[in-house]
Specification:
This protein is of the alpha+beta class. Helices cover 53% and strands 23% of the residues.
Length: 365
């Protein structure tokens, strides 16, 4: 048992409890940090998987939209060519053709890009459309080369138009046909990123936000759909919307809540994935409780071990005491002689032996 047992005896229960408490606090801090890092790493993996899915969704939607746009623009081009080739350039014929083809409006422009004839019920919108078209080089290019055609989709004051430009066949100039497709784009039943993401649930209850830099064009949070970027609570809390690719997990706070997420720029979209801290660290409390319970079990076992060691030490000391007492009852005296120091000491002595020793000492004196 030796020195180790002697050291054990020196520590009181309060000291041992203090040591266990300090070690326990350090242990729990380490466990807390390890679990937090593990949870964050898991969220990074989940976020990357979710972003990968959203990227594929955006790509498929762009392909779908491009296919529809190409088809719709080709329809407007065909209507413009028919107007140029087969319809008389009179007001009545132009109005009849515009109504028959279900166009929002049509115009015949001369070589100076001035309106010769027009048909449509929205002159102000047509004026704004013509103003935007005249700024482009395509109009002049078609006037100079009648073989060229041009078609595109444009947004003006919150409304969307498909339009086509073809050259006049009989005189220099351009034929313009346009169609307002705002209702089609705003139709809730029309396929969009908003409809593709609406109601979807992802691992960890991830909240998905897709913006075009101005508005939220897709999300699985119904309250955020269609909001302007600066009105979106989570994005505005981050402080900026236009960001470069960032693979790091970031933390933000909004209305007293913490969120963890990732963002990246893909094609013309800004993608955001957010997780509530309650979902990110949902299991941390359980791991902490398990660690605390495990440490308490270890402490109880160590305390029992120390108590058992102390009892063994006491038994050993008791045996030594009984051994010394037994030896003392047999002999008159037990002397401890130190040869190097030329001295001795009476460990056990009887009264008679004490008288003899005292008498000897007096004679020497």
């Amino acid at each position: 048992m030796g020195k180790t047992d002697e050291k054990i005896q020196e520590y009181s229960p309060f000291k041992i409890g203090g040591i266990f408490s300090v070690i326990g606090i350090l242990f729990l801090v380490i466990v807390y940090g390890a679990v937090t890092n593990a949870e964050c790493s898991q969220v990074k993996k989940n976020a990357e998987t979710t972003l990968q899915f959203v990227r594929s969704l955006c790509r498929k939607y762009d392909d779908y939209r491009l296919g529809n746009l190409t088809r719709d623009l080709q329809i407007v081009i065909n209507k413009s060519r028919t107007l140029s080739s087969y319809v008389k350039e009179t007001q009545a014929s132009l109005e009849e053709y515009t109504d028959m083809q279900d166009l929002t409006g049509s115009c015949i422009l001369d070589a100076d890009a001035k309106v010769v004839l027009r048909s449509g019920q929205r002159p102000l919108e047509e004026k704004a459309l013509l103003k935007a078209i005249r700024k482009e080089s395509n109009l002049k290019s078609i006037i100079q080369d009648s073989r060229k055609t041009y078609a595109d989709q444009i947004e003006l004051e919150g409304r969307y138009y498909n339009y086509a430009l073809v050259a006049r066949t009989k005189k220099p100039g351009v034929i313009l046909c346009y169609d307002d497709i705002t209702r089609t784009i705003a139709d809730k039943n029309e396929l969009s990123l908003g409809s593709l993401l609406a109601g979807d649930t992802f691992e960890g209850d991830a909240q998905i936000i897709v913006t075009d830099g101005k508005t939220v064009v897709g999300t699985n949070v119904s309250d955020l759909q269609g909001l302007a970027v600066d009105q979106c609570p989570v994005i505005s809390a981050y402080g900026q919307d236009k960001v470069q690719n960032d693979r790091k997990l970031f933390e933000l706070r909004d209305s007293g809540k913490s969120w963890y997420g990732k963002q990246e720029f893909y094609r013309s979209y800004y993608l955001y994935v957010f997780y509530s801290d309650k979902n990110v660290f949902a299991n941390r409390i359980y791991y902490m409780l398990i660690a605390c319970a495990g440490y308490m079990v270890v402490c109880v076992l160590l305390a029992n071990l120390l108590e058992h060691t102390r009892k063994l030490r006491l038994k050993h000391m008791e045996k030594e005491y009984h051994l010394v007492s037994t030896i003392a009852s047999i002999y008159e005296a037990n002397l401890l002689i130190r040869l190097k120091e030329d001295s001795w000491e009476a460990v056990v002595k009887s009264e008679r032996f004490s008288e003899v020793i005292d008498g000897t000492r007096q004679e020497r004196c």
